[in-house]
Amino acid sequence: MESLLIVTMEIYAKHLKKLSDDFKVLFEDLQRMGMPDWIVTLFDFNVQNADINSQLQDELTDMHVDLEAQSLFKRKNLCDSAM
Predict the structure, then answer these.
(1) Do residues 51 and 37 make contact, with C-beta atoms less than 8 angstroms apart?
(2) Residue 43 in contact with residue 73, Cβ under 8 Å?
(3) How far apart are the first and last CA of the chain?
(4) In the prediction, which pLDDT does 83 show?
(5) Using 50, 70 and 90 to split pLDDT, how confident is the model at 80?
(6) Other C-beta atoms within 10 Å of 38: how many?
(7) Distance (Å, rounded) from C-alpha 73 to C-alpha 40?
(8) What's the average model confidence in pLDDT over 29-34?
């Protein structure tokens, strides 16, 4: 029974490694680009310092004062939001 568990875990580990390698290839351009702070830390940056157009800056300012949006952003992930 223990050897079956070890074999199963090795299969999962190999599969996860392959997925990781595939994602690195598929999204290598995104890794090179670098993400602006306002995307990565949506609620933890100064909107006035963001290098974005004024309309987007206004929308982000509105989001910053929306406590419900902040709470949802911190509690949920993208999979939860799709439901």
Answers:
(1) no
(2) yes
(3) 38
(4) 45
(5) low
(6) 19
(7) 12
(8) 78
pTM, whole model, 2 decimals? 0.44
Tokens of 15: 């599969």
DSSP conformation letters of 42-70: TTSS-GGGS-S-HHHHHHHHHHHT-HHHH
Pick from 61, 30, 67: nearest CA to 46: 61
> What's the chain's average pLDDT?
82
47 touches 61 (CB < 8 A): yes
> HEC profile for 15-38?
HHHHHHHHHHHHCHHHHHHCCCHH
Angstrom CA distances, 74 to 25, 28, 53, 70, 77, stand at 29, 27, 25, 6, 8
pLDDT exceeds cutoff 60 at 31: yes
